[in-house]
Amino acid sequence: MKCLVCDGSTKAGLFDWHRFCPSCRYESADLAPVINEAGAHTRVDELDREVALKSLRAENFKVIVDLINRLVPVSAKRLLDVGSAHGWFLDEASKRFDVVGVEPDTAVAERARDRGLPVRIGYFPDVLNQSELFDVIVFNDVIEHIPDINRALQASYDQLSPDGLLVLNLPRSSGVFYRIAKVCARFNWHGPFERMWQKDLPSPHVHYFNEKNLDALVTRHRFQPLQSRHLSSLSSGGLLERLRFVGQVHPVALYTQCLILRCAIPFLKLMPSDIVVCTYRKR
């Protein structure tokens, strides 16, 4: 199978659904999204997911909006959030921009709409008019879920105004937790690696990048790399709920893991982060 990034030959990975490129280190998964299929939401309690993720996401979204503000002119007004989910990024970005969200998960999108957020239900770019232009397009924990990533990147170029900004916030394969998960998988403990890929969830990851191979892919679509910044991948807020959300764990083990991670957070901040935000200018 040909590598998405460098056109080299990929090799079988740790499982029959996992592959990697030995040349550029891009990784992929043969996992299918089932976002709006019947029974998909029986696998995920969105209320639990909201409690588990909101604290960390809100913290990182403030950093991302601040980064965007430093990279766009004052005249930049329109911002598109692709995969806007519960609308947390829209909440933060709307303090500065005229925002629009796109969300394919009907149930999640309707909840955001109920809060008065401007969310279009459907897939990017299908729910947009071809003539619509945005000064900023953001993918927060989304681009790694999109099977046809080349189409998404080309559509981003087409829907951006001249000199527009593309922002990709995503997990990175060189992060400490991903590396630990790979080691665990090699010793037959599959759970951490499967959780990193969100296997068996309605929208699993199908790509894993590092900054170098991501830049190589995005620049093929006529974007200029600007800045990248590592983001927090763990915070004390919502930590217990996040551990509870990612799998069935005995209560004693759950609280033990939570205690260990809370104590380890200051040290983990010194390790390679598992989340990166990369920015690109339309050329």
Automatic annotation (TrEMBL):
InterPro entries: SAM-dependent_MTases_sf (IPR029063). One of its GO terms (molecular function) is methyltransferase activity. The keyword Methyltransferase applies. GO terms for biological process: methylation. It comes from the Bacteria. The keyword ATP-binding does not apply. Keywords: Methyltransferase, Transferase. This is Class I SAM-dependent methyltransferase.
